[in-house]
Specification:
By secondary structure, this protein is α/β, with parallel strands linked by helices. Helix content is 20%, strand content 22%. It is built from three helices and seven strands, in the order βαββαβαβββ. It has a seven-stranded mixed beta sheet with strand order 3-2-1-4-5-6-7. Helix 1 links the parallel strand 1 and strand 2.
């Protein structure tokens, strides 16, 4: 199953630091048409238009521009069609439903 992430420059640092390559993350998406058809620096992960998410139907969409979470969840509402989920890695790892509700605080304190 494909994984996808929404790209923003600060996400490149996280991917490169973590050694994430296209064998783990098959593609990225970006609204900026100048970036589409290119690859992320370092990781060489291809950048596509957001419509690729609908075509690929990934189980998880990694949101690297965490400060734009609400906007991206709204733009990527198509994840509801197949019960896809969002992964927000920063500032704390969260798994979100397609509606943006937190369904798992992966590293939250457990009683």
């Amino acid at each position: 199953m494909s994984s996808a992430q929404t790209h923003l420059a600060k996400g490149d640092t996280l991917l490169n630091f973590g050694g994430i390559r296209s064998d783990l993350l098959s593609f990225t998406v970006d609204l900026n048409t100048r970036k589409q058809g290119r690859c992320l620096p370092g990781s060489r992960i291809p950048i596509h238009a957001p419509q690729r998410v609908r075509a690929e139907r990934p189980n998880y969409l990694l949101l690297l521009p965490w400060n734009l979470k609400d906007e991206i969840v709204s733009q990527m509402s198509c994840l509801r069609d197949w019960d896809g989920r969002f992964v927000v890695p920063i500032p704390q790892l969260h798994i979100l439903s397609a509606d943006g509700a937190v369904i798992d605080d992966a590293f939250a304190s457990r009683p």
